[in-house]
Amino acid sequence: MSFALPALNGWPDTDQHQRKPSVALTPSKPAADADKKAAREAAQQDILLREVDEAVRQDEAAQFAQRYGRAILALLVVGLLAFGGWLFWKDHREGQLEEGSEAFVTALDEIQAGNADAADREFATVAGEGTPAARAGARIIRAGIAAQKGDTEQAAEMYFALADDGDAPQAYRDLAAIRGVAARYDAMQPQAVIDRLKPLATPGNPWFASAAEMVAMAYLEQDKRDLAGPLFAAIAKDEEAPQSIRARARQMSGLLGVDAIDNVEETLAEAGGQEPGATASAAQ
Fold first, then answer.
1. Is the separation of the CB atoms in 247 and 271 below 8 Å?
2. pLDDT tens digit string along 202-218?
3. What are phi and psi of 26, to 5 degrees?
4. What are the residues whose beta carbons fall under 8 Å from the beta carbon of 139, sequence distance 6 or more?
5. Is 131 helix (H, G, I), strand (E, B) or coil?
6. Sign of the CA dihedral with 135 first, then 139, 140, and 141 last
7. Sign of the CA dihedral 175, 179, 180, 181?
8. Which one, 82, 198, 215, 245, has least CB within 10 Å?
9. What angle do CA 209, 217, 264 make, to 5 degrees?
10. Shortest CA distance to 107 belongs to which of 98, 97, 116?
11. What does CATH list as the number for 55-187?
């Protein structure tokens, strides 16, 4: 036995009431044509504005080129000429350095072969045509050749000429001053020695030990023991100084009553030719 369900209040029977499909309204043709026309006009306007903007830029570029073009071209030409000149100078300089190096090596070979005169001629060429460093080095070696020949006065003059040359590298000038004083020390007045080397006789200077030793000896000749003693002690305490100079300075400072020994064990080891600490180990 079947029962038909009654329709709920407010809920229509779906079998009896079918939904009607909705129909979209299509736009009218005149409205679509108007939109297309507006879009076309906007595109044409945009193209026109771009053409105007491009024309303005071209006109500004033409005016700029007319006003500054020659100056810019001149600067480019000057820059290219300068660069070309620098390249030429660099190649020429490298060629000179190579030639100077060969001449220097040839001169050194002559010295090693015992041909002092030939070496002196080669170094004379380098001293006149080489780079500043090569010229200074050649001048020092030529002075050394003169000293080896026994002409200490000429050697000293050559050393001092280099020491007083403001165009030479400072390191070569300092070395020349020391060697010049060493070559002419016996003939120089103590004060002249001090005046020459005192600027180099300061701790920290690469030539301190050699310069300070001669300055201290000059102080002794002037009977200035109060200046000589501390200077000898400073040399003895300088760990960068050669051991031979430190040993002499330690003895001289001791004779002058100035203590130059900071580490007794190290000093005894150096005097005996042993490593520091060996004396203590041997005593145990």
1. yes
2. 999 999 999 999 999 99
3. -80, 140
4. 123, 127, 158, 161, 162, 168, 172, 176
5. coil
6. positive
7. positive
8. 82
9. 55
10. 116
11. 1.25.40
Q: Which amino acid, 158? A: M
| The amino acid at 140 | I
**pTM (global) more than 0.90:** no
For residue 175, CA distances in Å to 92, 179, 203, 282 come to 30, 6, 16, 43
The residue ranges of DSSP E strands in the chain, in sequence order, are none
pLDDT (tens digit per residue) in 25-35: 555 556 666 66
Residue 126 is inside which H or E element, if any?
helix 116-129
Q: Is 27 helix (H, G, I), strand (E, B) or coil?
A: coil
What tokens were used for 182? 């060493």
Residue with tokens 């507006």: 38
The one-letter amino acid at 265: E
- In angstroms, the Cα distances linking 15 to 11, 132, 250 are 12, 116, 129
CA gap 95, 72 in Å, rounded: 35
Look at the chain and count its residues.
284
